[in-house]
Each structure stands twice: as structure tokens, then as C-alpha cells.
Design a protein that fits this description.
38% of the residues lie in helices and 17% in strands. It is of the alpha/beta class and 408 residues long. The chain binds pyridoxal-5'-phosphate.
Length: 408
Amino acid sequence: MQSELIGEQSAEYFIDLEERYGAHNYHPLDVVIREAEGVWVTDVEGKRYLDCLSAYSAVNQGHAHPKIRKALIEQASRVTLTARAFRNDQLGPFYKELSDLTGYPRVLPMNTGAEAVETAIKLARKWGYKVKGVPEGQAEIIVCEGNFHGRTTTIVGFSTEAQYRDGFGPFTPGFKIIPYGDAGALEKAITPNTVGFLVEPIQGENGVVVPPAGFLRRAAELCKKHRVLLLNDEIQTGLGRTGKLLMQEHDGVRADVIMLGKALSGGFYPVSAVLADEETMGVFHPGDHGSTFGGNPLGAAVARAALRVLVEENLIDNAARMGEYFQDQLAEINSPHIREVRGRGLLIGVELKPEAGGARRFCEALRDRGVLAKETHTHTLRFAPPLVIQRTEIDWALERIRPVLMMA
Ligand SMILES: *Cc1c(COP(=O)(O)O)cnc(C)c1O
């Protein structure tokens, strides 16, 4: 009995269960996490790691933040789900607090990031038909090469990543693809039927690709000039990750529509939202769109706490300062493998040369030394720790990152 119990605690046991019973739609690093706090996670064998992924920026506030956990537990013991058939006492305050923080007057709550993107697509199309006057069925949305906006059938239909599309057609029509960061191509692609330009301010999943300076601002000007909605996907870049509340602030841009997700709940619960102005959001009427769980009181209470933590603990400022330090230190590593270090705030990519043999083996070596990072796009290591990270912890990580990047 005793030995069986120990066997059941081993990493191999849990990995085997996942491999045997789960769909194989991910290729995770073999670390089985049992608990986490702040920037640290602990595996089932008691080994500690510094998390440099933050669940793709969903735990900006740090793992298991006590204030968010408290809000979750308190709300869970009152009421968790009413559906939007009835009202609840968390949704209104959530709307107001998110609106006050971002300066967007209207909020539409959903659950996952992909749902927020789907919502923005529906919003842009409806606005195009009802406000701009695009002929029925003709609305076009422009997207970028290398985009990542989620995994629904509509969204993968306009991905340029062959694997994301392979086997999943036929796809939703109405999308045009331009090179990322190319304002000239954007202007050429716009027609009288263009209703939206859907863009990530930094392409996180594509390898932390930063567009040329001024691109977002130029895109915003073109959208305004041609009456096209700028649909800014800040699901990964938003909520402090890049050292501003929204990445667009770096460029002095205010998009027509913002998508948020991931860190909106501090990693406790899926909460996403679409933000827009009165006129745009006004095209939605009762029955046009919805979600059973979207706007539920548990998610709203968690999101309210997650936003409060971002502000009260100055995490946005910390991301700016720590991000600059981390990026500078990474750039000083004199490794034969590194092609470029780039990013903004605490969203940092280290692109390796093709001869380095891919980023995966470096991630595995980092894991063995206690740093969790994940390759993004074969040749790039992404470093995106929780925004609560301190300088001593970055130094701890760097002591492990340096030798790994110097290995043969
Ligand atoms: C993660 C992500 C999404 C999708 O969010 P899910 O919650 O996984 O559906 C959309 N856009 C961007 C930029 C993302 O990083």
C-alpha cells in the first residue's frame, strides 16, 4: 500500500495518465506541477521552479494571489452562476471598474480569449452593415501574417500557420491577410467593404514579434481615415505585461475595440472581455450574442480582484522596470546561439539562430536547472514571468539561463 502510494505521487505516474487518456493536442514539458505561489511553482516531487511563462501571461498577478483567491472563495460561497437571464451584484461593478480603468465606456464579458475575438469579429461585421452601410454579406476584415487569435474554426481559418488549419476547413470567408507591420499593405488592402483590422500589438505566439516603430499608430490613422474599426487583440499584451496597462499606450493609440482575456482573472478562472465605444457596442441588441457563463458573478468577482491587484500592487510599473532589466541582462549574454533579444516590458523573446537546433532543448535544460520557459515558434525562447517578479529572482533565473545559452 505504502509503495503504491509513493508510486502514485511520481511524475511518471501523472505523465502516463495524461498520455494514455488525454487527447494528444499538446506537447508539454515534462514537469508535473502540484502547487504554486507568486513566481514559483513546485512539482509533485517537491522540486521548485521559477515560472517564466505565466501560463501565456494569464498569471500576471502571480500564482494563487491571496487577494484574488479570497475573492474567489467568498464569491463561490455566495452565488457562482445566474446566467444573463437574471442580474447579479458582481457584473455591474465589474463593468464600471474595467471601464474606469481602461477608459472604454462599454464592456461585453465572455470567458476565453477566442470567444472575445469571435465577439469582436461579430461586432465589427454588424457595425459594418448597420452603421457603415456595407452591403449584406460583403464585410471584410484584414488580419496579419503570423497572427494568433485563438483556435475556433473561424479564427484558424485566417491563420497563416499551416498546422493550425490543416484538416479543419471549410473556413469562414471574409478575411484578408497582409504582412505584419506593413502599414502600406494595410492601406492597399482596405476597400469600401472593410469593417475591421484585427491585430496584435506584439505577436506573442509567433515568437514575440515586435512590429516596426509607429506601425500601430499608422494603422490607427489609416483605420480612422477609411472608417475601419481597429480591433486590438491585447489578450496577451494587455493588463500590464508590456509595462503599460495596454500595449497600445506605448504608441499613443486608442483602438476602437479591445480584446482582453488571460490575466483578466489572474489565472483563476476564464474571464475575457471586449471593450468598445457607445456607437460600436450599440449595434448589439438583446439576443444578438451571448454566453451562458459570460458575465457570471464568480468570474466577475475574480476579475474585479485581479484588476485591483494590478493597480494596488503597482504591477504595471514593476513590469516596465523589471522588463527593462531582464531584457538588458539577456542582451548582454554573449552566446553563439542568440540571434536577437526583443520584446517590451516582461514579454521577452530570445530568438536563436537556426543552427542552434531549436529552442526546445534549451527549455528542457532550463527546466532541469529550475527555470520554466517554453519555446514559441521553434527557434524562440519566451521569457514572460509573473509581473510580481523581483530583481533577485530575475538574477536567480539569469544564473541558470546564462550557462544554458552557452551550452554546445
Ligand atoms: C491566448 C491568446 C488568444 C486566445 O485565448 P484563449 O483563452 O486561449 O482562447 C487570443 N489572442 C491572443 C493574442 C492570445 O495570446
